[in-house]
Amino acid sequence: LLDGFGSISFFIVEILLLILLLIAASVRIMTSAADLADANQRHVQLVCASIPGFLLGGLLLAYYLQNPTLADLPIMVSLLSYFLDATSRRISTDKLTGLNNRQYLMSFVLQEIQAQHDPKNRAPELYLLMIDVDFFKQVNDRYGHQAGDQALVRIADVLKTSCACYPGKAFLARFGGDEFIIVWEAEEADIVEDFRKKIHMTMNQFNIWAYPKADHSFDQEDPLYNLQLSIGIGKYRDGMTTVEFLKEADEDLYRIKKAH
Fold first, then answer.
1. Which residues contact 75 (CB under 8 A, 6 or more apart)?
2. What are the pLDDT digits (tens) for 213-236?
3. How do strand 229-235 and strand 170-176 relate by DSSP bridges?
4. Are 145 and 96 in contact (CB under 8 A)?
5. pTM as predicted
6. What span, in angstroms and rounded, lies between the C-alpha atoms of 132 and 229?
7. In the chain, at which end, N or C, are there fewer CB atoms within 10 A of the end residue's CB?
8. Is the dihedral of CA 191, 197, 203, 204 positive or negative?
9. pLDDT for the residue 188
10. Proportion of the chain above pLDDT 90, given as a percent
11. 113, 110, 45, 112: which is closest to 82 by C-alpha?
């Protein structure tokens, strides 16, 4: 009897520890997701956080109905959910940079504009940053398209790093070629201007890290290791369409690009 009682007690302790570990894992993933600025990365984290919840639900269901095989059902549902989400992510993600692609961007902008029209919406002002690489053609012509792809990946990392320094919801996308877009919510225009400066500063830091020389000397004339960006800003105003919203940022980008 003692052996039997001890075995049962040990089994209960194992189940309780497993439940606590699943809850802790889910909470930890959700907490780390809340700190991510990129909405795309945050979504992936939240999907991962749901998997321990499915497993926990399966264990509780199996225990309540006294049928261990029922634990398999939530597990299969969680794996199917993760597979479908991963497939959706592949469709909406730019393969080179890992950012959102243009198709997903357009649907997201439309969704955000519709949210701005909601009278119950108390979200901050909506801004769109259109980013273009200066003299990018020189990189491809001098070093080849493979080096150009590496440069685009570096720029994507710059944008991710810059967004992580600011609170709020940021949506990063590769618009096409060497153009990128950030859809961002901010309380004041000055914060957006600071954000633009932060991107330039981060770009300069990444340029220095990317330079192959041991002394980290910086060649201002080399287009590959001195990547520079032009950043236009558009602010959403009532009545704007998606095209008009993009056009405002594009016009500001053209003005800055011409100056560069």
1. 54, 55, 58
2. 545 555 666 778 889 999 999 999
3. unpaired
4. no
5. 0.68
6. 6
7. N
8. negative
9. 83
10. 35
11. 45
